[in-house]
Every structure is written in C-alpha cells, then in structure tokens.
C-alpha cells in the first residue's frame, strides 16, 4: 500500500476533475482559465514553508519553496500504517508538473500536487481567520482560538475543490522565532466529511470528527527561492497540466488534469518553453 495514497483524508473532500487520457504528447497548451479576483492574503507571501500534517495513523511533511515568478517546489515525506514514502514535485509556469519519487494514480495524476497545496490552503485559511492582520501582528507567542458554527471552511485548486462543514474549530499557537520566521502549531477539528471511510487513518470507528495537527515554520526570506532554467530534469516524470478531454461512448468529457509527456526536456528552461507554448 503506497503511503502517498494513504496520506491524509483531506482527499476525501475533493471532487476531482482529472480524467484518464492516453499517454503521449498533448496538444499545444490551451490558455489557463482566468482566476477569480480574490483579495491578497497577508499569509500568501511566505516563500519557505514547512508543514507537517498529522492525523491518527498517518502523517505527511511538505516543504514548499515558492519562487517570485509563481514556480514552486514541494518536497514530501509521508508515513501511514508503518509505510514510508518520499518524493518531490516542481510546478513550472502553472502548466508543467515534474514528479520524482512519488507513485501517481492513473487518471488522477494531478492529485499529487493538489494534496500538498490543499494542506497549505487549510493552514492559510486558519491563519487568516485567527490573525487577519498577517505575520506583522505576531509578537512573541500568540494563542490561536477559532470557532465557526455557521460557515464552512472552503478551498479549491484549478482541478478540485472541497470544504469542511461547520461547526469546525482550531486552536494552538503562532510564535515569532526571528524577524522573518514564524513557528505554528495548530489542531483543527471538523465533522467527518460525508463518505469518509471509518477504516481510513484519521477516521476511527465511532468518531464523528476528523482531527489534523498542522505544525511547522512559515518564512519570508529576503532571498526568495527560484527554479533556474538550467536546473536538470533527468529522472523526473513530466506532465502538462491543463484542460483535457476524453470520450466515453458517444460523449466527450472535459476536465482539468495532468497528462504525461513522452518527450524528454532536459532542463527546467526547456520544459517551461514547451508547456508555455501558445496554441497553434
């Protein structure tokens, strides 16, 4: 049993739009869908974030390096029921996904990046609720106590979305360790998502709630990370992320997912140029 497949019942919330697609090189990239106008969060500017999400029986640690141009890298380690795994993901130009060390589910390959990103969105949503003024408001150790009886906690990526139903709550602390560095330790509880298997980690029989502990470090470095064009990609599996379609009977199903590339791109720069090419 793969640990990345077990890693965290957050995926039980998701309605994935990824669809199976024959392997090969995709058609030229279609324009990415326009993102809705959302007010910038003061918690969205961290460029080095380490996040460990723990639930009963499973845990995963995600280390994010967020470049100024929107590229990012996630290094992941996970353990569930005594099985360990590790791997890395690069997201390039919003359309290119490079994966190393992770086993991806056919037809749902984009879940590999959705899983850590949704975990990070959960953290940011809780920090925004608890400390809406953002990192500058943290002096010393600040207690966190957030309770919501009416509104769900919702989040999404371009490929999936989900929510925690109310009543949900979070408590813990955020502590300033240095001018650019904060440490957080939060426990989040919410009603068990509809359809969640009681056999999964985090969902023991008879427990009406799920519980996650989110612990780690938020850092805004004056020298942000980058994924340079000369970074080699030997040993990475390459995917193009975007609109895809497949046929079931006489129907064409449109969605948004990741398609494996058969062409070899030896560097990040070559990969960036390929996935960012406009339609012909």
Strand content: 35-45%
Low-confidence stretches: 1-38, 198-202
The topology string of helices and strands comes to HEEEEEHEEEEEEEEH
Number of helices: 3
Distance between the termini: 42 Å
Shape: globular
Order of strands in the sheet with most strands: 6-9-10-11-1-2-3-4-5-12-13
Overall residue-averaged pLDDT value: 82
What's the gyration radius in Å?
Answer: 19 Å
Helix content: 10-25%
Strand-helix topology:
Layout: H1 3-6, E1 48-55, E2 58-66, E3 72-80, E4 83-92, E5 96-100, H2 111-130, E6 141-148, E7 153-156, E8 161-164, E9 168-178, E10 181-191, E11 209-219, E12 237-248, E13 251-260, H3 268-275
Antiparallel strand pairs: 1-2, 1-11, 2-3, 3-4, 4-5, 5-12, 6-9, 7-8, 9-10, 10-11, 12-13
Description:
Strand 12 and strand 13 form a beta hairpin. The termini are far apart. The strands form 2 sheets. Strands 6-9-10-11-1-2-3-4-5-12-13 form an 11-stranded antiparallel sheet, with helices on both faces. The chain has a two-stranded antiparallel ribbon with strand order 7-8. Mean pLDDT is 82; it is low at 1-38 and 198-202. The longest helix has 20 residues, at 111-130. The protein has helices at residues 3-6, 111-130, 268-275, and strands at 48-55, 58-66, 72-80, 83-92, 96-100, 141-148, 153-156, 161-164, 168-178, 181-191, 209-219, 237-248, 251-260. With 280 residues, the chain is mainly beta. The protein has one domain (3-24, 43-219).
């Amino acid at each position: 049993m793969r640990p990345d497949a077990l890693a965290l019942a957050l995926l039980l919330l998701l309605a994935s739009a990824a669809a199976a697609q024959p392997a090969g090189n995709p058609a030229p990239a279609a324009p990415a869908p326009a993102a809705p106008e959302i007010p910038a969060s003061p918690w969205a500017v961290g460029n080095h974030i380490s996040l460990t999400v723990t639930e009963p029986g499973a845990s995963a640690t995600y280390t994010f390096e967020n470049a100024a141009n929107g590229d990012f890298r996630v290094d992941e380690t996970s353990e569930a029921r005594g099985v360990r795994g590790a791997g890395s993901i690069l997201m390039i130009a919003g359309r290119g996904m490079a994966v190393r060390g992770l086993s991806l589910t056919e037809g749902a390959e984009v879940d590999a990046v959705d899983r850590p990103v949704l975990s990070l969105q959960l953290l940011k949503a809780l920090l925004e609720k608890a400390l809406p003024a953002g990192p500058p408001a943290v002096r010393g150790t600040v207690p966190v106590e957030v309770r919501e009886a009416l509104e769900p906690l919702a989040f999404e990526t371009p490929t999936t979305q989900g929510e925690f139903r109310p009543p949900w709550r979070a408590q813990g602390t955020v502590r300033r360790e240095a001018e650019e560095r904060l440490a957080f330790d939060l426990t989040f509880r919410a009603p068990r998502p509809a359809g969640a298997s009681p056999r999964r980690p985090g969902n023991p029989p008879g427990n009406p709630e799920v519980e996650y502990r989110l612990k780690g470090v938020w850092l805004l470095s004056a020298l942000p990370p980058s994924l340079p064009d000369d970074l080699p990609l030997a040993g990475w599996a390459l995917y193009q992320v975007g609109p895809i379609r497949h046929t079931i009977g006489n129907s064409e199903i449109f969605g948004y997912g990741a398609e494996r590339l058969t062409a070899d791109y030896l560097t990040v720069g070559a990969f960036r140029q390929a996935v960012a090419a406009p339609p012909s």
